[in-house]
Amino acid sequence: MNHIADRRSIVLAILASLMPLALQAKPSLKVFISADMEGVAGVVTADQLHPAGFEYERFRGFMTAEVLAAIQGARDAGATTIVVADAHGNGENLLIELLPYDVTVIRSWPRPLGMMEGIDSTFDAAVFIGYHASTTSTTGVRAHTLSSATLTSVALNGIAMPEAGISAAIAGHFGVPVVAISGDDAAVAEAQALLGKIEGAVVKKAISFHAAATMTPAAAQALIRAKVKAGVGRRRELSPYVLQKPVRLDVSFKHYRPGEILSYLSIVERTGAHSIRFTGRDIVEVSRFLEFLDGYSAELAP
Ligand SMILES: [Zn+2]
Questions:
Q1: 123-175 pLDDT, tens per residue?
Q2: What is the dihedral of CA 192, 78, 38, 42, to 10 degrees?
Q3: Cα separation of 58 and 67, whole Å?
Q4: Longest CA pairwise span in the chain (Å)
């Protein structure tokens, strides 16, 4: 009898008995999904985008289905934890009962990180669903940045930004790369020009501000699932979008008075009749300032 071989086989048997435990401890893979609505397949006007619109109830269902497709794509690539930020309008669009039981949803406003509330440095990848082109785009469906009613341009460190850029910079602050985006062709092209070769699900082609040639919801969902799976799979080859600090924010308003009254604050510089500048320590501070711009009114109640 060979005692050394015998001992070795005992050690191997113990190791083998521990294997199932090792296999159970799956590595965590956290994916953050920020969901807007203008870039959802079929969306072209306010009829789909606001609760008063005659098609809104159906289209919040399509938005939810696109998010569900993104969740499935992320899981196909191994995601174990998913957080979804409802980032359109009142932030109460997603039909949360249709999402998997272990998904966390961020709802309503205000929130310091805006469309990216809920992200932190524990995430491995960020995904944008239903995004649209910037207010400086001449082609996208419902193209705007943060507010089509009040803002005509938003720039960070001198670069005009779509919402995808602002959201990517917040993800980048936490070291998280953006891996995929869905929206119309203008939104996807803008994001890829800024962020590099992220996966893009083009679910419609913009014809004008209020018209598009669109895929059907089912086809768009299949495309989103495949692109998100590919993006999450490629997360290690995509770099986080990191802005140099401090971060300079330039905003121009449609109207005259916001810039005038904001410049009463010593942290705000008036750069023109309709424009102001705010410099934040980092993008988080800039995000809080943007949320203030969007959310403050002397008539806030409660
Ligand atoms: Zn929106």
A1: 999 999 999 999 888 899 999 888 877 888 999 999 999 999 999 999 999 99
A2: 110
A3: 15
A4: 94
Q: State which H helix or E strand residue 14 sits in.
A: helix 3-24
Question: Residue 124, Cβ neighbours under 10 Å: how many?
Answer: 23
For the segment 58-87, the average pLDDT, to the nearest whole number, is 98
The whole-angstrom separation of Cα 49 and Cα 89 is 8
pLDDT at 135: 87
Domain 30-137+162-237 adopts which CATH fold? Rossmann fold (3.40.50)
pTM of the predicted model, to two decimals?
Answer: 0.91
- Residues 216-264 have pLDDT tens digits of 999 999 999 999 999 999 999 999 999 999 999 999 999 999 999 999 9
Q: How far apart are CA 7 and CA 4, in angstroms?
A: 5
The rounded Å distance from CA 90 to ligand 1 centre is 9
Q: How far is the CA of 141 from the centre of ligand 1 (A)?
A: 11
CA of 226 to the centre of ligand 1 (A): 23
Strand 30-35 and strand 81-86: pairing? parallel
Identify whether the C-beta of residue 170 lies closer than 8 Å to the C-beta of residue 284: yes
Ligand 1 geometric centre to CA of 230 (Å): 25
ω before 302 within 30° of 0 (cis)? yes
The confidence score (pLDDT) of residue 194 equals 97
Report CA(4)–ligand 1 centroid distance (Å): 69
Query: Ligand 1 centroid to 69 CA: how many Å?
Result: 19
pLDDT at position 60 is 98
Rounded-to-integer distance, Cα 139 and Cα 38, Å: 14
CA separation for the pair 147, 135 (Å, rounded): 9
| Residue 193 pLDDT grade (very low, low, confident, very high; cuts 50, 70, 90) | very high
